[in-house]
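Provenance and format

Records in this collection were gathered into a single text stream. Each protein contributes a sequence line and a token line. The two records reproduced below are adjacent in the stream.
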Amino acid sequence: MAIAVGVAGTGFWPVGMGVGRLGVIGIHEYLMHAVYFAPRGKKRLIHLGANVAQRYLSAEDRLIGLIGDAGAGKSLLISGMFPGLELTNDDNNVNIRPLPLLDHAQRGFFRHHTYHLDVRFETAFTQPGELAEAARQAIMKGRRVVVEHYELLHPYLDIKPEVLIGVGEEVIVTRPGLFGPDPQDIAGIVFNSIRYRKMAHTAEDLTGLVLDGMGIPKPRVHGDIKHGFILEFDAIPAIDLVEVEDRVKDYIRNDVEIAYVDENHIRIGDLLVNCTGPRIHLKRTGEVENFRLMPEFRWDPVQQLYIMVGLVGSAHQLPGGSGSGIDGLKNLTGTG
């Protein structure tokens, strides 16, 4: 689910955009911001990245900044947005030296059309001012630079990004204008919200463990809501949701350690668990706050599936009960 908010006729243009393009303005030129739930799993994040590129990027965009905590999924979004782009951080035990952007800047000749820069990783080797100067030179030569942890580079770079993306509980896509948003505004949102995403994914995996132990077939669909998750089934499982909730809470009370194993597994205590988003978890089950299941399954007449809803963190009113309406919609979309 996504929200897109835009306004026409502002008269503000991204870097490098002239009046001559008036006749070929894309819909992305009117974008204020778009908000998506940040999905778990490699395939879903890459697919979201491809959609973001198709909807909100221009071929003439030169500076794209991404902001978010380590493991939030920034590199996977980039892989979807720019297929084939060689990432220069060590997420996959890749350590490219010398850094192509810096090497080409020092040589005075930029061989590539698009460069990747992970500022947090590179500042272990190079001063941020030097990285900013290399990025500025590439942009002035008409090259594109995609920057992870852009908030760390922003104080040293005098060029506003055409696209700024924050990755926390939601993926926030913006095209900054004269009045913002500033990178620190985005950082303040995503660094605060990522813990709810980690709580929700941890609680979802604990719920899956409990369901497996009860002999329940795996759900047809996994989905995301604000501060929670949904599991969708072809038929209502023969289970007591109160019992499922109590068993998940037992895991939480026992404060079991959670550890990354590889790109397809995590370890919860002594159990090896299949997982499509192994980096988006808490370190211990006891860090999950206020877990609860909705007391009954919901019916989706379009998909013809029964939905189990799990929630974490502060209480939110879901549409369909008392207090539903626009406030409930905001709770689910992340705009409230």
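Adjacent record:
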Amino acid sequence: MEESHYNPVEKDWPNTPVLFKDKALFSIRTWWVVWSGDAKRENKLMCRKDNLFMAKIGVLNNLRVVKEVDFGVYLDGGEHEEILLPRKYVPENCKVDDNIEVFIYLDSEDRFIATTEKPYAMVGDFASLKAVSVDSVGVFLDWGLLKDLMVPFREQSPNMEQGKSYVVRVYVDKKSNRIAATTRLDRYLDNEPGDFYAGQEVELLICNQTDIGYKAIINGTHWGVLYSNEVFQPLKSGQKIKGYIKKVRDDTKIDLSLHKTGYEKVDDITDTILAALKTKGGFLPVTDKSSPETIYKLFGVSKKTYKKAIGAIYKRKLIAIENDGIKLISK
């Protein structure tokens, strides 16, 4: 006697023949799609039969509308079953079988809930967020959603204060399945140097100032350091800025710079200096005695890079170096 299997079609479309073996599933599915003329229902059958997907908490999901009610619509969350998208977030003219991009999290009663609003940071992200309240279980951060993001006391180092902003990492607590944040960042950053190389352009997130400079997260994966004597602009915690790999040290630590290194940067700045000279009538009151801050304010580079650029222009006999500045040589 052949073994029979339950077909999920029976739940959605009653009175349909449902006895078939797994090896015959494809042909029967094909017959059903042709007979019904509804490929979307076939997609629904395959997802329910094989559990091909599960809506992910803490990130954006593209989910299908399966039911409309007075207070919103329900979305197909796969293994999470149906997830409510409250009415105020439902797009205009939304209907069953439409796909909507939503963010999934838990509401105050720990039920899966969807929103079309996007938080300032999602699970896996590092971001600077402001502490808006403190209670007996932790600190709560404004992350752009109605329900604030909690940082448990055990995840704070140092203790956080209301009204201040902190760089945190967003994660999902494995025990409660709730989205939370932590200021203990080291566990999420790689200790190995990776594939970085000198001169590589990277994205930096400034975290905190130390005795030697600023600690920064590189591309969301590694720590790096910007040295104070090489920084000529104000930086603050939480600031995102473009930077460059200066050196990967033997101890695997990474030195950073806000400027390109070597003659690659010099080539860029020479054109800027020449353009500035033409704009200012052929003379700039900047010398090798000028402060690093003055040079950075004018050209956005370190004094060392500026002097290299001036030397390169001088060798091309385009400028004259005078006591009180540099002068463009007319040809």
